[in-house]
Design goal:
Number of strands: 35
Strand content: 35-45%
CATH architecture of the largest domain: Sandwich
CATH topology of the largest domain: Immunoglobulin-like
Largest sheet: 9 strands, antiparallel
Number of helices: 6
CATH class of the largest domain: Mainly Beta
Radius of gyration: 37 Å
CATH superfamily of the largest domain: hypothetical protein (bacova_03559)
Length: 505
């Protein structure tokens, strides 16, 4: 059965699309022509906690004689009309909601499934109305009809409200006479606007040396819908969560001391309130410099939410992720700005240069990824390498320094066997007497230096590599490359790099 046969007047509307010459044959069919301005498929998102949601409609009148009186009806399809619509369109995955789920009346006690319109005169060309949808009723209907909808299957059906425009006296445009309202009923969730793990470094120089210093993380609880009920959300300080996080992630955060924070645990959302900030104050004066602390806030596992009135609340229609934990890492640092150290062959030497290519000077020429601008350790000669220092660059610093960071870049075209993997940093004030224990070990660098012309930063101003005292001389020892250990005289293992930048203080 074709769509034009389902409804009165559709055949005439189809003729309207074929050309102006048809007006001579059927002029009376087009005296009045009706359309739904927002016809077609429409997605309606509603929250299960809402009492009512409005769906606007506009019925429009055109035609050959707009001045004539005309009549039209906007209605929800009955079973026979919807069956004919499905047969005509082949859309079998839709299931109409029952009449108690909606009404054309704002009075929730009235079930009105149709609106009649009388258009009088040429200036009477459109009418607006609302279909009032009842999310609370829909939620119950979906629960009662879960098998019909196949909600537990891989191919659930879509609940809809099929709206139809008809006229007993005038033509209805066959292409603008149906509006399918696809109802997407959502369960609102209590939302939090921060990530699960949040870090903050506080520069000690910004603190008041004689007064109070508090840090309050920014975090908000909110719900994406109206709140007519009033409720309370409960959270807890969770020391065990920090310890568990350390075990799972291999970290070593210190649990924030009990006397170093104040946490509000109950957050009362009065009716109408939809957002509220976390109230957490961390006493920075109680924290040691350069120590990593962590504080965990967990939504109460047993009673995450309580309602002001047990007889008037949405129950399970408001989702709360009980037991969800949010972590706040805090570190007070004494930050200095590390300055770039000018490197050249006048203050840098090496025990492991390749004589046939890769001059040491190219490592400091400011060119990253050049075809010939790279340094290469020995591969054609067996340079003497000690197991403690391997293949190294020995750097004379402009002044004694104790904090360092650096940038290293790969050459433009080379095998991954030469990418630097592990570096040890040694320091001394007597270059004839070097310690045998490095003050810094940087492992798995080739995870970042993993491609041609790739560069990576190692350390930063907030987290530099720190020596136990300032040193005048620094050894940058490449202990391992992608090809293996450089702690032997083997020519089969080597490293290369396009550029090195060193920063220190």
């Amino acid at each position: 059965m074709k769509k034009s046969i389902i409804l009165s007047g559709l055949l005439g509307a189809l003729v309207l699309t074929t050309g102006c010459e048809k007006y001579d044959i059927y002029p009376e069919a087009f005296d009045g022509v009706f359309t739904i301005r927002n016809a077609g498929t429409r997605d309606l998102v509603v929250y299960a906690t809402d009492d009512v949601a409005e769906v606007p409609f506009v019925v429009m009148k055109g035609g050959y004689k707009p001045e004539i009186d005309s009549k039209a009806t906007l209605k929800v399809m009955n079973d026979e009309e919807f069956a004919a619509y499905q047969e005509s369109t082949g859309l079998v995955t839709y299931v109409p909601l029952s009449p108690e789920c909606y009404s054309f009346s704002p009075n929730l006690d009235e079930n009105i499934d149709a609106m009649d319109y009388v258009f009088s005169g040429k200036d009477d060309r459109s009418r607006s109305t609302n279909l009032y949808v009842r999310p609370n009723v829909i939620r119950q209907w979906l629960s009662d009809n879960s098998e019909l909808l196949g909600l537990d299957t891989d191919a659930p059906k879509t609940p809809i409200i099929p709206v139809l425009l008809v006229s007993e006296t005038d033509t209805v445009d066959a292409y603008s006479n149906v509006s399918i309202i696809k109802v997407n009923l959502r369960v609102p969730q209590l939302e939090v606007d921060v990530n699960e793990f949040n870090s903050r470094s506080i520069n000690a120089s910004t603190l008041d040396p004689t007064g109070d210093n508090f840090y309050s993380p920014e975090m908000n609880f909110s719900i994406p819908c109206a709140n007519p009920w009033g409720f309370t959300v409960k959270v807890n300080a969770d020391r065990a969560a920090v310890q568990k996080y350390n075990m799972v992630n291999g970290t070593s955060y210190l649990v924030l001391p009990n006397d170093a924070y104040e946490l509000q645990t109950d957050y009362h959302f009065e009716p109408g309130v939809t957002s509220m900030p976390l109230n957490l104050k961390i006493d920075v004066n109680k924290l040691q410099i350069n120590r990593n602390y962590c504080f965990a806030v967990t939504i109460d596992k047993k009673n995450p939410i309580t309602w002001d009135n047990e007889n008037y609340n949405p129950g399970e229609a408001l989702g709360v992720e009980a037991g969800k934990t949010y972590y706040f890492s805090v570190r007070v640092i004494d930050v200095v700005i590390l300055e770039k150290i000018e490197l050249s062959t006048s203050n840098v030497t090496t025990n492991d240069a390749e004589p046939s290519e890769g001059n040491l000077a190219f490592l400091f020429d400011g060119i990253i990824g050049g075809t010939s601008n790279f340094f290469h350790s020995g591969w054609s000669v067996a340079n003497e390498r000690e197991s403690v220092y391997a293949s190294y660059l020995e750097i004379e610093l402009p002044t004694p320094m104790s904090m360092f960071r650096f940038m290293l870049a790969n050459r433009e075209s080379a095998a991954a066997a030469g990418y630097v993997k592990k570096v040890h940093l040694f320091g001394t004030n007597d270059k004839n007497n070097w310690p045998t224990t490095p003050f810094a070990v940087i492992d798995d660098m080739n995870q970042q230096l993993n491609g041609a012309a790739v560069s990576a930063e190692f350390g930063d101003d907030e987290n530099p590599y720190r020596a136990d005292q300032p040193y005048k001389y620094l050894r940058f020892c490449v202990m391992e490359s992608g090809g293996g250990s450089l702690g032997t005289t083997s020519t089969a293992v080597f490293w290369h790099a396009s550029e090195l930048e060193l920063y220190g203080f």
